[in-house]
Design brief:
Oligomer: single chain
Order of helices and strands: HHHHHHHHHHHHHHHEEHHHHHHHHHHHHH
Number of helices: 28
Shape: elongated
Distance between the termini: 92 Å
Radius of gyration: 33 Å
Strand content: under 5%
Structural class: mainly alpha
Number of strands: 2
Largest sheet: 2 strands, antiparallel
Helix content: 55-70%
Strand order of the largest sheet: 1-2
Length: 514
């Protein structure tokens, strides 16, 4: 019997997607079909060939519990396993049944313990996708079944089990010992065990995103002999962060780690072997160093997230600030701003980076770190004032001076000199002057009469923000109304309006108090 044209077209599209994920458009169309589409597909099952049967089962799986009208037809299809020696369509139908019964935890748990691989995988899929609401009381049974899948020699079992455990979140904690064992099993030669380790790391990382504390284990893998494991661990640690202070020892070890030279390394998309020319050896060494610097950067970022709690790792962070890798120095500077204690050694290291580092982003990070520490020493203020002259560090230096506040008042003239046409950067400079308080007023009133238009505009903006409405300030702002430049006149007018509005608001508050 010929299939209806729309059903035939749907099956053809599903067959085209074989071996890959169906498109969102196709999934949406299938899901919208609901029970009506399920009935039509069920009617077609008895006459469909093997390939069409597989496609129909996949469609019914997407429809899910709404496809219950198709259960009798799917059950009849699974009977072929008993009647025929080889009936792959029976396994497809059994897997589809699991998806259709996804709203029945008992059925899913039964499927999870099935001896048929395709059925087990379908049960793990519906759990991993959140299609099955596992009751708290049944969670231990589900975790136990998934742990048995982790013990399987089949890599697909481990992969599906890992994803399902991630979906269970904290309920999956009993499976942590086995996941950790799989993730940390040493296999320097690669192969299936290596792939299994990567799946286990992915499962641990997913559980970490769900709030389970796994970061110390993942941090420990940053020094694993296997490069693929190190890379996967670094990626996950960047996602979940350090979680708690038990992560500090493995992170400190990672800062001491030196990636080993490999017999075969990768340069771009090309393998480089030991008998390659000198240029390839240099490229291989560069790749090794880049990987090492990436690991150190991940460890420094995590230590910085722990803040002052990671103070015991401070000597290693200070050492990392001298790394030949600019990315490492950048993250070391940031970590010093969060972990550092403001000691002369920390300030001296940051001042050295701010003054001498050739990389602009490292100098910016050093300036920001000094601001985080609110370092008030004369040397710090002088160096930050000097950094205002550099466009690459101007904004960070101004922010840091603002954090230091009144103690940095000697830098007020330098801040006014640093006002430029970039509105966002000028805003940070104005905020820094504002935080210095009334002591900055003389410099601002002088700045209103500067030759530079941006100094005149920025000082007017700051006077308004500070609500500096003294007679001298108001007279200076009124003089801007006659400035030769329209944007300066507008800045003066807006500043006067802001001060007048504030005065009116205060008057209304006083009347209300009376």
């Amino acid at each position: 019997m010929a299939l209806p044209e729309d059903v035939r077209a749907l099956i053809d599209r599903m067959r085209e997607a074989e071996g890959s994920e169906p498109t969102a458009d196709l999934v949406g169309k299938v899901a919208a079909g609901g029970p009506e589409l399920a009935e039509r597909l069920a009617a077609a099952l008895s006459d469909a060939d093997r390939e069409d049967t597989a496609a129909i089962c996949r469609i019914l799986s997407i429809i899910g519990p709404a496809a219950r009208p198709a259960i009798p037809a799917l059950e009849a299809m699974t009977e072929r396993r008993r009647l025929l020696l080889r009936a792959p369509e029976a396994d497809e139908a059994a897997a589809a049944l699991v998806h259709v019964r996804a709203d029945d935890p008992d059925a899913v748990l039964t499927a999870l313990r099935s001896r048929h691989e395709r059925v087990r995988h379908a049960a793990a899929e519906v759990i991993g996708a959140g299609e099955t609401a596992v009751p708290d009381g049944r969670a231990p049974e589900v975790v136990d079944a998934l742990e048995q899948m982790l013990e399987s020699r089949e890599m697909a079992d481990r992969c599906h089990a890992g994803r399902a455990l991630v979906a269970l979140g904290h309920h999956a904690e009993p499976a942590l010992p086995r996941l950790i064992e799989l993730a940390t099993a040493r296999d320097d030669d690669g192969g299936p065990l290596e792939t299994g380790r990567l799946h286990a790391i992915d499962a641990l990382g997913g559980l970490g995103l769900a709030g389970v504390v796994v970061a110390p284990v993942i941090a420990g893998l940053l020094t694993d002999p296997n490069e693929l494991v190190r890379r996967r661990a670094a990626r996950w640690l960047g996602c979940i962060g350090p979680q708690d202070e038990s992560c500090i020892p493995p992170l400190a070890r990672a800062l001491d780690f030196r990636t080993p030279a490999a017999g075969v390394a990768v340069s771009g998309d090309r393998e480089v072997s030991d008998d390659t020319p000198r240029e390839a050896e240099v490229s291989r060494e560069e790749a090794r160093l880049r990987h090492q610097w990436e690991l150190h950067s991940v460890a420094l970022r995590a230590l910085g997230q722990l803040g002052s709690g990671a103070a015991r790792a401070l000597p290693r962070i200070l050492a990392a600030a001298g790394s030949p890798g600019a990315k490492v120095r950048y993250h070391a500077a940031q970590a010093l701003g969060r972990v550092g204690d403001g000691s002369p050694e920390v300030q001296g290291t940051l001042l050295g980076l701010l003054r001498d580092d050739e990389a602009g982003h490292v100098r910016r990070a050093a300036a920001g770190a000094l601001g985080c520490l609110q370092a008030e020493s004369h040397d710090v203020v002088v160096e930050l004032a000097r950094a205002l002259r550099d466009l690459q560090t101007r904004k960070s230096a101004a922010w840091a001076l603002g954090r230091i506040g009144p103690a940095a008042i000697e830098a007020a003239p330098d801040l006014i000199e640093a006002m430029d046409g970039d509105a966002r950067r000028r805003s940070v400079v104005c905020k820094a002057l504002e935080r210095m308080g009334e002591d900055a007023a003389p410099a601002l009133l002088y700045g209103v009469h500067r030759d530079g238009r941006w100094q005149r505009i920025g000082c007017a903006e700051t006077i308004a923000a500070m609500q500096l409405d003294t007679p001298v300030a108001l007279r200076s702002l009124r003089e801007l109304l006659f400035d030769r430049r329209e944007d300066v006149r507008q800045a003066g007018e807006m500043a006067l309006e802001a001060l007048a509005d504030e005065g009116e608001d205060e008057g209304e508050d006083a009347d209300g108090a009376d």
